[in-house]
What we know:
By secondary structure, this protein is an alpha+beta fold. The protein is about 50% helix and about 10% strand. A 5-stranded antiparallel β-sheet has the order 4-3-2-1-5. Helix 2 packs parallel to helix 4. The radius of gyration is 23 Å and the shape is elongated.
Amino acid sequence: MRRFEFVEGTSAKFWMAEVQGSTFIVVFGRLGTDGQRKEKEFDNEAGAQREYERKVAEKLREGYHEVSSEAAPAPKGAKGAAAATPKLVLPPRVRGGKPAAEQVTAATEALTALDARVGGRSWKVSLQARRARRALRALGGVDPASHSALGAVFTSLMGKVVAPRGEPRLPLWVALELLSELDAAAFVRTLEQWKRAPEGTPAQAAIGLLSRQAEVLGEPELALRLGSLLGARPRASGDGWEKRWSELRPHVEGHLVSGGSSLPALLRSLEAGGDTRLAERLSRLGG
């Protein structure tokens, strides 16, 4: 069965459909329930297929998103839905794998070079940041703490995000791009590192926002992805940003609704701390 889900505000529903011979079958209901099953007989298979295609198009117009489902379809003739209700499946953020020693060394060297350039010309920092990100991507979503030399330079580099005024500082958006190539555990640990920084650091408002959304979500992977959107580079906007959010939004809303909350409730709990760019992005999340 193809599966579609709709999550918005306090509404969280699923709809599944398939054709078996000349019978059009749907299973629908609230997320987390078995839902109910309905069958409609047609004169022939072509008629059932036309109805199937019409209803799928209708659900897409209504805002449903198709999701992958590994659950087996309910047995034919069953009363009520026998199929389980799977959750939305997040697409992989990184390509998993065990890195070779030389790849870890290359990533350590790239981060060390970036660490040395922090505070220099912005274009040089950006260029080395791209090199470091590519080197981290090759590690297959590793946690830098699992490699001593890599972990040490990474921690040093992340510390420069919250450097006091007047000292070399790594832009937050660069740090988030690097974190997006790593295991979500690195994001959780880095947030704790940033929260220990003294009051008055330039990134304080953004760090507070990232920490709060991570606390409310309670799911490191979602918090990293949402935080990366909130803290994206200043010029990141338009269709690319909106596309990333439209893909992530059903997962965030589904997670919140399953816990008895909602996206509006999350957004009400977040404050931009006087940062106009953060305020604008929070507004776009609710749009």
